[in-house]
């Protein structure tokens, strides 16, 4: 077996969980080696997730705005057209800026990048096989598993990335589809479906659950569903995909709703029915690693697995599969390893859907609070009553608070509207301090800004919104 090199911390995976854990551990004076098989750092998020999807969402939003809204602003535009290769090249460039940025941060913090596929062996040793077959090995006083997740495949629709696409193929379709079928009406399906719809595709979303975005606040889901349909997305909820015929030039997807069978013809299908923990290089049975019901690595609130000195973070431990969750867990794991008395909590973990309008949420939904039996009040404020939103011509949606009836503590906040992804941050901060609606209501917000909708919704929870 190869010579074993050592480091204080060996991190398996260079996505948002692994690269942040690496940098934080290095900041704390530990020697760190991060093992990443891909040709770049950044993981799913930077290479085939958050960043390329947001690049395409931005470009396609500009295009749609020019076509549908420029005239309202007194701007005449003629001859808009999509230059797909240029749009894709920009996306690739944005991704490269991010991956190179992480490489720079690794050099700055003296994190070693061991390139290749790692396999965890007993004794906290990770064997690494480089692309040329060379094998090296790293032993860590601590090991952090950050191997991420992979898309769930439907047995009758295996990914070929030609006609049957995962997120990877859906970010690189070489033409605007005539008809893109999206199986799964969750975040990824709606975001990527929106991209291609804006660029000119007919897009049909098929969702098994009774609504799109299952698990979100009912009011938000209802309004989002209405808006997305108005934008032209065809949405079939409560609809099961039962089979498919894949041809060289297209796909027929067989569906069933309320017992009635039918089929949908498309030239591409995106399967976005969820993601599952990625365990390449980690053999739980051989290692004796404790696993959960959904194939995730079990950890405590300090990200420790049941194996001594082995931690796990990010998508591979389940929960909300979000980059900022992975980053926070990476930070906490590094700090725990460095001896700091910290732990994870998930009460204030935000979540965003980057459609337009955006959806941003934190904390409990109204139906969750109702089911818990806790007495609560709701505050709501629409963007149509906000001056800045009117100047922008972006008046769809609202901000909704759910607060404890007696203490006024913020239990949840759900937003649908322009730039709510950024607007949510103030509520997350307030909740981090266990703030109340009153705390936000007495805070001065600049006028005219979209952020005033949050103040007004908080005032509304207190029964005293000014502009409504
Ligand atoms: P990953 O990012 O999956 O990284 C794991 C890395 O480990 C990979 O680079 C992989 O190559 C490497 N690896 C795995 N096994 C080995 C091994 N044995 N040896 C060497 N290397 C290995 N989240 C958000 O918060 N906001 C968004 O807007 C958002 N948009 C998304 C859009 C799409 C289309 C998708 C698919 C996901 C999106 N996500 C978003 C989710 C986000 O990408 C993930 O939550 C995040 O990437 C998880 O980080 P991670 O470090 O746990 O794993």
UniProtKB/TrEMBL annotation:
Residues the record marks as active site: 447
InterPro entries named in the record: Class-I_Pyr_Nuc-Dis_Oxidored, FAD/NAD-bd_sf, FAD/NAD-binding_dom, FAD/NAD-linked_Rdtase_dimer_sf, Lipoamide_DH, Pyr_nuc-diS_OxRdtase, Pyr_nucl-diS_OxRdtase_dimer, Pyr_OxRdtase_I_AS
Cofactor entry: FAD
Residue stretches making up the Pyridine nucleotide-disulphide oxidoreductase dimerisation domain: 349-458
Disulfide pairings: 45-50
Broadest EC class assigned to this enzyme: oxidoreductase
One GO location term (cellular component): cytoplasm
FAD/NAD(P)-binding domain residues: 8-330
Residues at which NAD(+) binds: 184-191, 207, 274
Molecular function GO labels: dihydrolipoyl dehydrogenase (NADH) activity; flavin adenine dinucleotide binding
EC number: 1.8.1.4
Cofactor note: Binds 1 FAD per subunit.
Pfam short name (any one): Pyr_redox_dim
PANTHER family: DIHYDROLIPOYL DEHYDROGENASE, MITOCHONDRIAL, DISULFIDE OXIDOREDUCTASE
UniProt similarity note: Belongs to the class-I pyridine nucleotide-disulfide oxidoreductase family.
Note: The active site is a redox-active disulfide bond.
Protein name (Swiss-Prot/TrEMBL): Dihydrolipoyl dehydrogenase
Organism: Gemmatimonas phototrophica
